[in-house]
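Notebook entry, structure prediction.
Reason for the run: the old model in the group folder had no record of what sequence produced it. Starting over properly, with the input documented here first.
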Amino acid sequence: MARYTGPKARINRRLSTMVYESAGATRASQRRDSPPGMHPRGRRTSNYGTALTEKQKIKHYYGLGERQLRRYFAAATSAKGNTAQNLLLMCERRLDNVVRRAGFTKTRPQARQGIVHGHFRVNGVKVNKPGYILRAGDEIELRGRENLKNLYRGVIANNSPQPLDWLSFDSEGLKATILSAPTATDISLPVDGNIVVEFLSR
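New structure, fully documented this time:
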């Protein structure tokens, strides 16, 4: 999506999900967890509003624009299996998401910034597209510049990502490897993908 620069805690409160993980957004969301606006708890939400909220979760969490989400949806529809799972697993295999989940960065916006600035290589080739879709066997590593290595070592030292069966991370060698394709249990965003598929199919 176009880079969101507004108050991230407000989006977390509106969507009732921690889609933005920065320290400031987390603290602000904890102080006030109700949706923004007057009398938020008394509102009734239509089916359309619920589906739109679920779609917005995916867009904000993975940093997608509307056109990009529609492209992913078209690819997920043409692939075999459950369309909702296909869509979310494609998002999970994005380079920026993998960089975040491996532990190189604390948030996805940080991962996107590093990728756009050319900090990472995939299979030895510099990739500056956050939406690059990774496959089993791909290796992600930092460029060989010492200042970059020192920067990311500092981030990694203060970061403790959850270990993943489909992804290995070498914090000493600053390298991550995709061991296998993620499965439905590896999807990190709590969202009702079926509602989103119905919404996008209209």
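Summary: The longest strand covers residues 139-142.
The old model has been moved to the deprecated folder.
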